[in-house]
Amino acid sequence: MRRPGRRTLLALGIGAVAVGAAALVVVLVSRGGASHRPPPVARRPPPPAPAPGPVRLANVRGGGSWVAVLREDVVARGAPSAAAAGVLAVDARNPYSGDRQALMVTGAYRARSGRHWLRVLVPARPNGASGWIPRSAVASMSPRLVVVRAHLASRRVEVWRDGRRVAAWTAGIGRSATPTPTGRFAVYETVAVPPAEQGTYGHYIVALTAHSDVVRLLDGQDPVVAFHGAGAAGAVRLDAPSSLGCLILAEAPLAALTRLAPPGTPVEILPA
Question: Does the model's pTM come out above 0.85?
Fold first, then answer.
């Protein structure tokens, strides 16, 4: 066999280099492609659902309270469950003013289903009665920094805002046979009195979530305790035991109370 010449060897050498380079390119591309693949990511399990039970509400300064404004008509129930018995049906809007009903909140609860409930004061017996409403029925919830304190011993009504007293007035209280009940209640609704009844109640009735412990029927209904005016009797009903359990104010203080303490405001009636 003829020995290859220089040119043949050179050609073979160049070919070998070319083949080696091609192999090198193949290897580099193959390795490079593998090195750019994203590493596997471990999927984290979803966080566990919050445990059912009471939900703590932040304290409101100055003895105030949280207030829930209703979005829709709702039934307040005896427990945080849609299957619980109803305590009171509450309209979304005040039937007198047309404003959305505002309720004082006293607690919160998270059900096992994840549904949230609010406990609110309602004007039902016994005094201090509350009911549970779904949070979904509430349009908004906010702190109310105002609290009204009625001192039966001194026959004084005070309005406090953010820990500061902003108003104080003399008031009439319940007679000894029909005393004003004590406890922590809330303003439920404010009513502008029709002219025909202003001689008895004055210009406004500020109804509370409280009932008389004695009077259970008045004009065919179970009456609520309220702030109202002295009417035609005037000053004789002020600073005296003169009512069936309501708190009596002069007209100017009564009008001021309607502005300072809208529905949902806590009212503390302190014993004599």
Answer: no
Domain boundaries, the chain: 53-144, 146-270
Number of neighbours of residue 115 by Cβ within 10 angstroms: 15
Q: What pLDDT was estimated at residue 25?
A: 40
Q: Give bridge partners of residue 131 from the DSSP assignment.
A: 120
Q: How far apart (Å, rounded) are the C-alpha atoms in residues 251 and 44?
A: 65
CATH number of this structure's domain 53-144, picked from the four choices 3.30.2350.10, 2.60.40.10, 2.30.30.40, 2.115.10.20: 2.30.30.40
Q: Determine which helix (DSSP H) or strand (DSSP E) holds 139, and give its type and residue range.
A: strand 138-144
Residue 96: C-alpha distances to residues 75, 91, 100, 101, 205 (Å): 19, 11, 11, 11, 11
Which residues fall within 8 angstroms of residue 96, CB to CB, at 6 or more apart? 189, 190, 191, 192
pLDDT of residue 127: 95
Helix, strand, coil percent content, the chain, rounded in steps of 5: 20, 40, 40
Please give the CATH number for the structural domain made up of 146-270. 2.40.440.10
Tokens coding 178: 């029909």
Question: Would you state the pLDDT for residue 268?
Answer: 98
CA distances from 42 to 36, 37, 45, 47, 48 (A): 18, 15, 9, 15, 18
Q: What is the mean pLDDT of residues 151-171?
A: 97
Quote the pLDDT of residue 4.
Answer: 45
